[in-house]
Design brief:
Length: 219
C-alpha cells in the first residue's frame, strides 16, 4: 500500500495498522510484511511476529488481495505462523496461482523457490517476463530480485549498470517491500567503489525504512 506523503516513513506501521483495522486489504498486506520482517525506526519498534503476519495476510487474501494470497501461500507451505494448519500442497497452489496470472508477489515467491533449487535460469526468466509488463514495475521486490540476478550473473550475463538502475527504481518505490533491501545493497555497492556521498544517501534510506543492519550501523 502506498504511504501518503504526509506520513513519515518512520510512522508507517501505525498508519498501516489504522487502515488495516478499517478493513483495507492493501494495508493488511503491508502491515503483515512489516510484522514478518520486524520494523525499527526512530519512533516505532515492532518485533518479528510470524503469527500476526499470517493472520493479516489471511485477512487480506480472503478479500481478494493477490499479493497477500502469495505471501500467505508461503506461510502455509512452510508452516510459518500457521502452526497445525501447515499445508504444503495448498501453499504451493496459492503461490502457483498468483504467479500464473502474473502477480509480482506470486512471481517473487515462485522465483525464490526456483532459486532454492538452483534453477537460476528459470527464476531469471520468470522475473524478466513479469518485468516486461510495465504495469508490474511498481513491485519493488521484483525490481530488487531482477537487479540482484543481473549484478551477480545468476541465470544471466553480468550487467551491473542495469542491475543498479533497477535497484534505484526499487528505492524510488519506498516503502514498498524490497525498497529497503535495494537501498542497503546500493549502499554496499557505492561503499565498495569509494563513493562516500552516494553510500551515505542509501544507508540513510535503508535505515529510514527500518532495515536492521542499517539502523545499527547508524547508531
Amino acid at each position: 500500500m502506498s504511504l501518503p506523503s504526509s506520513i513519515p516513513l518512520s510512522q508507517r506501521f501505525s498508519y498501516f495498522e489504522q487502515q488495516s483495522l478499517k478493513g483495507d486489504p492493501r494495508a493488511q498486506h503491508s502491515i503483515g510484511l512489516l510484522l514478518w520482517n520486524g520494523f525499527t525506526s526512530s519512533t516505532e519498534q515492532t518485533p518479528i511476529d510470524p503469527e500476526a503476519s499470517a493472520r493479516w495476510h489471511a485477512a487480506a487474501a480472503v478479500q481478494g488481495n493477490l499479493d497477500a494470497l502469495a505471501v500467505f501461500g508461503g506461510c502455509l507451505r512452510t508452516g510459518t505462523g500457521v502452526g497445525k494448519y501447515k499445508s504444503i500442497a495448498l501453499g504451493l497452489r496459492c503461490i502457483e496461482y498468483s504467479a500464473s496470472i502474473g502477480n509480482p508477489s506470486g512471481v517473487n515467491k515462485k522465483g525464490a523457490m526456483m532459486e532454492s533449487n538452483d534453477d537460476y535460469f528459470g527464476a531469471m526468466r520468470l522475473y524478466r517476463e513479469c518485468y516486461e509488463d510495465e504495469s508490474k514495475r511498481t513491485n519493488a521486490l521484483l525490481l530488487f530480485n531482477l537487479g540482484y540476478c543481473l549484478i551477480h550473473g545468476e541465470g544471466v550475463d553480468h550487467d551491473v549498470d542495469e542491475g543498479e538502475k533497477l535497484w534505484r527504481d526499487a528505492v524510488a518505490l519506498a516503502p514498498e517491500e524490497g525498497s529497503e533491501e535495494a537501498a542497503w545493497f546500493l549502499y554496499q555497492q557505492y561503499s565498495e567503489r569509494g563513493d562516500v556521498v552516494k553510500a551515505r544517501q542509501y544507508l540513510d534510506i535503508a535505515a529510514d525504512l527500518g532495515l536492521e543492519d542499517a539502523v545499527l550501523m547508524k547508531k
